[in-house]
Amino acid sequence: MAERTKYILDEADLPTQWYNVVPDLPEPPPPPLHPGTREPVGPADLAPLFPQALIEQEVTSERYIDIPEEVRDVYRLWRPSPLYRARRLEKALGTPARIYYKYEGVSPVGSHKPNTAVPQAFYNAAEGVTRLTTETGAGQWGSALAFACATFGLSCEVWQVRASYDQKPYRKLMMETFGAQVYPSPSDRTAAGRAILAENPQSTGSLGIAISEAVEQAAADPGARYALGSVLNHVLLHQTVIGEEALRQFEMAGDTPDVLVGCTGGGSNFGGLAFPFLREKLAGRMNPVIRAVEPAACPTLTRGRYAYDFGDTAGLTPLLKMHTLGHGFIPDPIHAGGLRYHGMSPLISHIYELGLIEALAIGQQECFAAGVQFARTEGIIPAPEPTHALAACIQEALRCKETGEEKVILTALCGHAHLDLPAYGAYLAGNMVDNELPDAALEESLAALP
Hints:
Layout: E1 6-7, E2 17-19, H1 43-46, H2 52-59, E3 64-66, H3 69-75, E4 83-85, H4 87-93, E5 98-103, H5 114-126, E6 131-136, H6 140-152, E7 155-161, H7 162-167, H8 169-177, E8 181-185, H9 191-199, H10 207-219, E9 224-226, H11 233-239, H12 241-253, E10 259-263, H13 268-282, E11 289-295, H14 300-303, E12 305-310, E13 319-324, H15 346-353, E14 358-362, H16 364-378, H17 387-403, E15 408-413, H18 421-428, H19 439-446
Parallel strand pairs: 5-15, 6-7, 6-9, 7-8, 10-11, 10-15, 11-14
Antiparallel strand pairs: 1-4, 2-3, 4-5, 12-13
Helix pairs in contact: 2-11, 3-5, 4-16, 5-6, 6-8, 9-10, 11-13, 12-13, 16-17
């Protein structure tokens, strides 16, 4: 009998709870601080931006949170998502390693982002909110929130980073098809955007600027709230359905990962896969090396400073203790738009400081080479973001080829690139360059930390 290539759970196996890693950590993460008083933020400080249910999830000390049945019902459109064994890639590399990937590109918008967009829209609608504002980089998050808002009858406004708005027109069309209004950021619709444009009319934008615009709009309207696609605790919480399913699928496969690899921008895809496995590691039930991979052009974990900083450019958000390149940092317009954020999730930053995970940065040319090899062997063209994880997987698999180790490697393939093909066009035409971050530019940005 042929060995299995894919491991598929039944709808009945859909997780009923999200997992909160905080109670299992050796020490709790530092709290967010109020930008004015520099005192820890309380629920009332977050109420203009988020519904009460999400504020409670942001600060909870509960290990598990029940997933509402209305959310699970929408999840069933695509979850549980498949786990694949990358046998053809293994063969092409000539490695004794076994490579698995958890594929989130089966969602309605082709990425992992609806795992949190759906509950965020649900909780907002349940509390009478009528309008959500948000930012998006490459457009995966904006597409996911537009889909979720359509599902629960909310209006949706998206500020898309100008570089991606120009690079990825089909993302804008997807968002508009789901009913969202999409604006390039920086825009002239907000004070934050106008200030940036006055300084630099040709600004390519950043996630920090787009967050400022979306937050400004939400705070000014009592019927509106803001939704974030990564970074915060409740977002990473919702994504743990990925890792919980993967644990069940590894039981089906009769295997255990030795190395877990995920790409990191704000941290939601990485945390979603890694946190349930980290729970098992902390409990002594398995011992995988957990590795975060980021772009060399925006290397928050590997070169950023662990410090309190604003989550946005204009300084409208609470101060977060995180690995940061400085809230004014404008990354080069690399093709992995979803990884162009100046800070890393405070929770992942804290876990990195505790020494529980590793991190490395890779240039985009090596990443796209990995993406092309994966497409030509496994048949899926990966989004630019997970090519970073695939490049690190291939590095690990080739080390196993040298040593003869039969390691088991797991990665999160968090989306496909059907709407990101111009990025592959740039790579295939030889027009892609690696954007290194000069030390002087980094020091200048870090000098402005609050």
